[in-house]
Each structure stands twice: as structure tokens, then as C-alpha cells.
Design a protein that fits this description.
- The chain contains three helices and 14 strands.
- It has one domain: D-amino Acid Aminotransferase, Chain A, domain 1, CATH 3.30.470.
- The strands form three sheets. Strands 3, 4, 5, 8, 9, 10, 11 and 12 form an eight-stranded mixed β-sheet that branches. Strands 1-14-13-2 form a four-stranded mixed β-sheet, with helices on one face. Strands 6-7 form a two-stranded antiparallel ribbon.
- The chain has 210 residues and is mainly β.
- Helices cover 11% and strands 33% of the residues.
Amino acid sequence: MIPYNKYRYIYPPRPEINLPSSELDKYDNGLWVGQPKLNGSNVTIFTNGTELHVYNRHNSPLSNVKMSNNEFLSLYRGNGWFVLNGEYMNKSKINQKGNVFNQKLVIFDVLVYNGVQTIGMTFDERIELLNKLFVSTEYDGYINKISENVYIVKSFYQNFKNTYEKIVQIDMYEGWVLKKKGSKLKNGLSEKNNTDTQMKFRKPTKNYSY
């Protein structure tokens, strides 16, 4: 266990491997968990209940944030420092009902809990921890709602291709991420430290290439 008793930046896990959706069936084998890839800005929230740091994946304060500090602080759970990773929706994307889904936070990982980094915990264990910490209700089949501006991703363990084909029809989702269920979190000392256990499958547009 690595204690975390004062603020220092941790690079969040992120997928760098881009694959076409035609490859999805190959990974539908029980070893991976699928989650929606939202079209916002990656954000990591560091708090001990009073101190707060809201940073992007490049170790800089996240810009274009209109959620209040109190809303971020309301996410605090446990004792000591608590660090969450997610997507901050600040690109005015459209949800399944045709409405703008903006200035919302969607959580998908926990990097520190009770003042200890979650290094050594698997993706599955961290998903389970998040679901215990946050009570949520169904939103659109792909994320769940915690509060008016805070959501959490749903996790899928099969039928990846079918779910991907549905989700890419919605503007606020840019694709699909696969995470190896049994892969253990490494210390986020650099951007590359946890890139080998995830893959992204983006919706086909002229902006993306494989």
C-alpha cells in the first residue's frame, strides 16, 4: 500500500491503443469489461474533504468548469484523501433525448481511498468499490445518475459490439473502452503507466484514424 497524505498529482489510467470496432468480438471473452467513452475532458478530482484540486490529464487545472466547489466536495467519501477520475462534460454534446448534456461529471475510476492509493486493485475491484461508495439510478442505459450534475459509468461484461453500435448513435458518446478486468493499477507517475490494459474503439468519423 502507498499512503497518500498530501496533494500530489497522479496521472490517471487512459487508453492509447486505438482499434476498429470490427475487432470488438475478439475481446468478448470474459476477460474484459466494457464502458462508454464520453466526449468531454478527462478530469481527476483530489480532495481531503476541505482541500480541492480539479485537474486535467496533463497535470494542469481543468478549464471551463462551472460545477461549484461544493458539488465536487460533496463527492468526498471515507477518511483522508480521496481521488476520483472521470470525464467532465464541457463540450455541449447532446444526450439520447436530444438535450445538451453539459457541465456534468461522469465518474469511472477511483485512484485513492481512505488516504491510500488503490495501486494493486484490479479494474473489477475498483468498479465494485465505486458502486459501493455511490448510490445511483438508471439514466440512459449507459451511465447512472448520482445527483443533478454527477453520474457514473455502467460496466458491461458481454455483447460489446452490439452495445458499441447503439452507443455511437448518441452525440455525447465518442465510442467504447475495454479494460482488462484482472489488471492491477500501477502507480501513476507518468502518462504511460497504465495505458497497456485498456483499448479504445471510437466512432468512425473523419477526425479519427487507426
